[in-house]
Amino acid sequence: MKKETKKNVMLGQHSMLRLRIALFAFFYIVDSMCSARALNRYIRHYEPLSYEPVTLHRGRSVGGRWKRSVDTQGDIVQVTFKALNRLFRLLLVRDRSWFSDDFVLVTSRGAVNASLDHVYSGHVAERVHINAQKEVETLPQERRVGLKRVCNLEVLVDHTLFEAVLTDMSGEREKALDAITAMVATHTAAATDVFSRTDFGGITGISFEVQRVQ
């Protein structure tokens, strides 16, 4: 009788231990799921990047989050941010290589003198000690090497898109135009990345340049 009682007590303790482990695992999973932000069914985790806008053209630094290169050209920007419990550093340089030399921006008020100084490209720096000028200055040049065929593009922007961007920019027309041209540059870069690596029956190295945005 005593042996049976002792056995039952041991079984009960073992069951309680398993229950505690199961509950711990359950709450750990729930906590992990709650702490991760799901954007949609394809992106299960994302972290919003919060930062203060800076005026690059005036050379003003906000909060030490970005800094210019000491190079005399002054067009290299280093941006640091924290995500996924890691510190990342972006090396960015002004890049208008996605636009042709005779690029024209046409609005409802006619052609305007479009500045592309707000368009940047770059990459995440992987090394701690890095020559920013050397790492960044060759990006546009390297991208042009080996490109055998360039297709000129004329992009027509839907008026509803422009109105939406204009609203986001609090009605500031110049900022809205900058946002549109930056958006066009991003899509052109993505298209070039895909087509330049595709072999169309022996035709390779296809790239795109925007000649006109209207």
TrEMBL record:
InterPro entries: ADAM_Metalloproteinase (IPR051489), MetalloPept_cat_dom_sf (IPR024079). It comes from the Eukaryota. One of its GO terms (cellular component) is plasma membrane. GO terms for biological process: membrane protein ectodomain proteolysis; Notch signaling pathway. GO terms for molecular function: metalloendopeptidase activity. This is Uncharacterized protein.
